[in-house]
Amino acid sequence: MFKKLLVANRGEIAIRIIRAAEELGIKTVAIYEETDRFAMHIMRADEAICIGPGPRKDYLNIDKIIQAAKKTGAEAIHPGYGFLSENPEFPKKCREAGLIFVGPPSDVIWNMSSKVIARNIAESVGIPLIPGSGVLPDGEEGDERALDFARQHGFPIMVKAVSGGGGRGIRAVYSENELLKSLKVARSEAKLAFGNPEIYLEKGLLKPRHVEVQILADAYGSIIHLGTRNCSIQRRHQKLIEIAPAMLPPLIEERVCEAAVRAARAAKYVNAGTVEFLVDAENQYYFLEVNTRIQVEHTVTEMVTGFDIVREQIRIAAGERLSIKQEDVVIRGCAIELRINAEDPQAGFIPQPGVIEVYQSPGGHGIRLDGAAYQGYEIPRFYDSLIVKLTVYGFTWEEAVDRLKRALDGFNIVGVKTTIPFYRAIVDEPDFRSRNFDTSYIDSHPELLNYRVEENPIDKLARLIAEINAHGYNPYADIP
Fold first, then answer.
1. Which end of the chain is more exposed for a tag (fewer CB within 10 A), N or C?
2. Which of 44-58, 74-88, 459-473 is predicted least confidently?
3. pLDDT digits 0-9 by tens, 83-105
4. Share of the chain above pLDDT 90, in %
């Protein structure tokens, strides 16, 4: 086991990695940009090093991160999620610098970053695929192939970036005119976002469920799964609520998990990853993609299995074997995770940078909080608007939902608008309560955005107390 780990990320995931490292007796190094100098992850690490003025660009600078690791004597780097976590150049350059990358090998990340290569690998081991076009050539030939594909399979059609991921690089089209217009735009967006203009088409499934399987693999050929997650409640292909397990029929659950392990083995996967599927109304499942990193929603899997996925990631990277076998994995109860963001759902989920004047969080049995905010912290406009991830556990779905409602009511966040009122509306919605949801849930329930936000007396009192603490006196004492 190495002695010092550099965390190449920020916010809650950086703190999550630091905690796992602490339990393993590993010293940690945090990196930060000058524009992020008040972030909590800096305070939690054993050391912190500024890698540049920012914003964002230095967190994406591989050479600066490796230089920071060398300077601080770190032997390994954990990329977290986002930023450089799925850039195949990162593990390659780490290896060349004599550093350990906590994640899959470079060639695995490269192969899985291509939707076409990933589909080919899945197909080679007999995993069902959504009908796809293959990479479309540019120009008239590509247009003709796209039209032929659409006429063969019907609309909707999904236009996808070959190098897309995390819900990005996807466009749904519903007519031939819309398809032709989308091809050029999609190529430009793919080039700008991923550096690769290649696109392909997939047949669109109507109202599928988005299901993913958490896998762990060591360097000695052992590969296991930790069950399923349901990530169907999304907005513009971005997940809002994640649930474990996915609540599939037992036989389908077993087949999906077995397919995920098969795909990982075919890809020669090492470390933690997620194999994603779409499941239609007839419970037919189709391979979607592989995410080669720790997922935001890994917490729900940890809650229902009891296993620490990040700790296992670090152990695997250090050359150790998996500490658990497939027969050790038992799914108990139900967990729900959602992201409390500084956003205004009623204004299109626009980020709400600003100072958190009051921050009080819920607690009690079955509640887990993964956050990086604190009272007085200013949500920066340069980064993700996440305040805290809330994960709740219940022995049953009904108990988990009741606990989620209690936890949401237990938050008191003053100073910025948050997504909490929107989630409160979801928790009380009958389809959600009855587990009747798929990827169309948010679009088919526009009334969820009609909530009213009223500042209650406790919020007003908390704001007053915060101002008295900040100023040392009551600023409203002389107001009649």
1. C
2. 459-473
3. 999 999 999 999 999 999 999 99
4. 87
Contact 358, 412 (CB under 8 A): yes
pLDDT greater than 70 at residue 7: yes
Task: Please give the pLDDT value at position 236.
Answer: 83
On whether both 279 and 405 belong to a single domain, the answer is yes
Q: How far is residue 410's CA from residue 323's CA, in Å, rounded to a whole number? A: 37
Shared domain check, 252 and 157: no
pLDDT the model gives residue 195: 87
pLDDT in tens, 307-342: 999 999 999 999 999 999 999 999 999 999 999 999
Q: Are residues 247 and 352 in the same domain?
A: yes
In the block, residue with structure tokens 């109304």: 281
Per-residue pLDDT tens over the stretch 342-399? 999 999 999 999 999 999 999 999 999 999 999 999 999 999 999 999 999 999 999 9
Shared domain for 74 and 137, answered yes or no, is no
**Residue written as token pair 């419970």:** 283
Burial bucket for residue 270 (CB in 10 Å: 0-12, 13-18, 19+): buried
* DSSP β-bridge partners for residue 213: 228, 275
Q: Reduced to 3 states, what is the DSSP secondary structure of residue 425?
A: helix
Residue 46 lies in a domain: yes
How many CB atoms sit inside 10 A of residue 23's CB? 12
Q: Which residues touch 278 (CB under 8 Å, ≥6 apart)?
A: 130, 205, 208, 209, 210, 211, 285, 286, 288
Which CATH number does the domain housing residue 77 bear? 3.40.50.20
Residue 43, in any domain of the structure: yes
User: One-letter amino acid identity for 104?
Assistant: P
- Is residue 159 domain-shared with residue 43, that is, in the same domain? no
State the Cα–Cα distance between residues 143 and 128, nearest whole angstrom.
26
Q: Which of 145, 178, 203 is the last residue of a domain?
A: 203
pTM for this structure?
0.89
Q: Are 410 and 279 members of one domain?
A: yes
In a domain, 361, yes or no: yes
Q: Assign residue 340 the CATH number of its domain.
A: 3.30.470.20
The 8 Å CB, 24+ separation contacts for 254-261 are 255/285, 256/211, 256/213, 256/228, 256/285, 257/213, 257/225, 257/227, 257/228, 259/127, 259/213, 259/285, 259/287, 260/213, 260/215, 260/225, 261/215, 261/223, 261/224, 261/225
The C-alpha torsion from 117 through 122 and 124 to 129, rounded to 10°, is: -100
Q: How confident is the model at residue 472 (pLDDT cuts 50, 70, 90)?
A: confident
Number of CB atoms found within 10 A of residue 10's CB:
25
Give the domain range for residue 82.
4-102
Domain final position from 203, 222, 242: 203
Characterize 49-64 residue by residue with b for buried, 16 or more Cβ atoms within 10 angstroms of its Cβ, and e for exposed. Answer: bbbbebeeebbebbeb
How far apart CA 396 and CA 332 sit, in angstroms, is 9
Cα separation, 167 vs 242, in Å, equals 14
Integer Cα distance of 220 and 280 in angstroms: 35
